[in-house]
Hints:
Elements: H1 3-29, H2 35-42, H3 46-52, H4 64-88, H5 94-101, H6 103-111, H7 119-124, H8 134-141, E1 149-153, E2 163-167, E3 177-183, H9 190-193, H10 198-204, E4 207-211, H11 226-240, E5 243-253, H12 255-264, E6 273-277, H13 283-288, H14 291-294, E7 298-304, H15 312-324, E8 328-334, H16 345-354
Parallel strand pairs: 3-4, 3-5, 5-6, 6-7, 7-8
Antiparallel strand pairs: 1-2, 2-4
Helix pairs in contact: 1-2, 1-3, 1-4, 4-5, 4-6
Amino acid sequence: xxxxxxxxxxxxxxxxxxxxxxxxxxxxxxxxxxxxxxxxxxxxxxxxxxxxxxxxxxxxxxxxxxxxxxxxxxxxxxxxxxxxxxxxxxxxxxxxxxxxxxxxxxxxxxxxxxxxxxxxxxxxxxxxxxxxxxxxxxxxxxxxxxxxxxxxxxxxxxxxxxxxxxxxxxxxxxxxxxxxxxxxxxxxxxxxxxxxxxxxxxxxxxxxxxxxxxxxxxxxxxxxxxxxxxxxxxxxxxxxxxxxxxxxxxxxxxxxxxxxxxxxxxxxxxxxxxxxxxxxxxxxxxxxxxxxxxxxxxxxxxxxxxxxxxxxxxxxxxxxxxxxxxxxxxxxxxxxxxxxxxxxxxxxxxxxxxxxx
Length: 357
């Protein structure tokens, strides 16, 4: 690698990583009344990134395998900030904020193939607490299993009903792996939501599947085509990879969290654990569930005290109703959480899943 290319990478990666970290901060702490303050705290790390990106244009095609992912990720990050700055300046609404933040998982997807090549990018896909863990680093330094990595099955952007999934690089078929099925929020897409979980799955060892709803959102009313689709997806993964039948978690955000109840309380549900996050709830969900299915069913409810879409009282009611019906319910109320995904909860959920008998 030429000195000029090395210099360009050294100039580009720090502001790119800082910008991704800032977008992650906005996505986690977004609360409509505090949007301006959240943007102020995020700073302007993309300014330095904008200045460094043009340097990629001078790279010869022999480095296209590095140049193209870095440019694509950088462009997504800049586009995200452009959208957020526009709303912060009074041009746009909350929908525009969510649209801008969709560039963040697209940047993470673009960079992921370089994680094995550029060590700073490998850290981007590890829990910060484990980035210096010798055992984790040694595990990831081993040759990548040919059936591992990120895969997409009929799940191109804009499509419905497909799924994306991640199998850890150190996968081996001689052990049974926990399975996490993560359901996106309303109008979301599994290909984007996968990146809410990949870092923790890679850090701790779990297979993660992120399906896309068949309709605009999950089948919360009317005919339920999503539950049989999820069952087919679980069967597909289990037929090709070694999945622990005692550790199959369905979790999700917002509408995805609500659908955890709908599909997870079904008598024939393939899931052993439920973790609805920022979900709506109606007591009829517990009342209509099969009593045998509910008895002892492990459920973790996660909700933000400042949730503006589904008030926290709904989660408290869910905990009471499901506990009274016989489920084994844990409840986590996060003081500084609005209606966003608390990625820090993933490690705790995996620890909980790992304690299954």
